[in-house]
Amino acid sequence: MRTLALSKVYQLIEPGPVVLLTTKGDDGPNIMTMSWHMMLEFEPPRIACCVGDTDFSFAALDATGECVIGIPAVHLARKVVGIGNCHGNRIDKFATFGLTPKPGKMVKAPLILECFANLECKVIDRRMVRDYDVFILEVIQAWIDPTQKSRKTIHHQGYGKFVVDGRIVTLPSKMR
Amino acid sequence: MRTLALSKVYQLIEPGPVVLLTTKGDDGPNIMTMSWHMMLEFEPPRIACCVGDTDFSFAALDATGECVIGIPAVHLARKVVGIGNCHGNRIDKFATFGLTPKPGKMVKAPLILECFANLECKVIDRRMVRDYDVFILEVIQAWIDPTQKSRKTIHHQGYGKFVVDGRIVTLPSKMR
Fold first, then answer.
1. Which domains does chain B have, with CATH numbers?
2. Is the pTM of this model over 0.90?
3. Which among A39, A46, A167 is the nearest to B164, CB-wise?
4. Each residue of B106-122: pLDDT tens digit?
5. How far apart are the C-alpha atoms of B42 and B151, rounded to whole Å?
């Protein structure tokens, strides 16, 4: 994996893909599937995400203040759904789903080798956790896998139905 | 347009489409293009969105506490980009872009007739406005246009590059 400029992180998150969030608490590494997230700032890249307190990852995220957001391409869809359908207190999700944890540089939560991009994040604001389960993250290191050429992502429409990235439309625009 | 059950609203927002946000302040109705939003709650449907204080819509949204989120299909992509590239203090965006304002039921901000779905929203929390430009919205009335069969949305990857919804993958899942 190669370093990705932090200025480009929003281009991965703004389209709204389903992502994987890893944490590393006292019980070891865990992964959860996440679709409720948005960009808040281009640089430094800031992301808001919704992690419920019934999610097993909640305690580790809250305690360590660190996580990694991995972005899976469509070929990982079955694993993404499997991860979303089981609870990390009972199983090692990396082993169960054949994913490879890879040490990051800035946080203890692992990167996921099979994801085409990984974002190392620190929690910078917990004020909205109590009322809305919202953590504000800052991305402090980003990685891209140049060997993965197919980067079509999946977007959840509910009940296991996903729309896959299709064709590209490019229009003249002053918007970043 | 027909009523859409509020329980289904998340299925439109969770996939991360570019949306149009309308407001109606003292200067009349306005439209902005928005990509930074996420679901916060299934029912009542709650949405967080980022509207910067340099956006012309900011003042009207803040003052009235009301807006409509319209969801455009890909055939509206050029209008969506045009709206994102001009400032509402100078022009009537409905007239300029040939869009039709339609009165809503619960809020003064107009629906956009050409969007296949419209969500009438109230601002319920402004605590994160000052630091992050984040408004928390609750959807109080939702509409769907049954005559629009093509509902492929667009997702912004930066600088006018959009990925269009492609094929559907459905996998067995216990996730809502």
1. 2-164 (2.30.110.10)
2. yes
3. A167
4. 999 999 999 999 999 99
5. 21
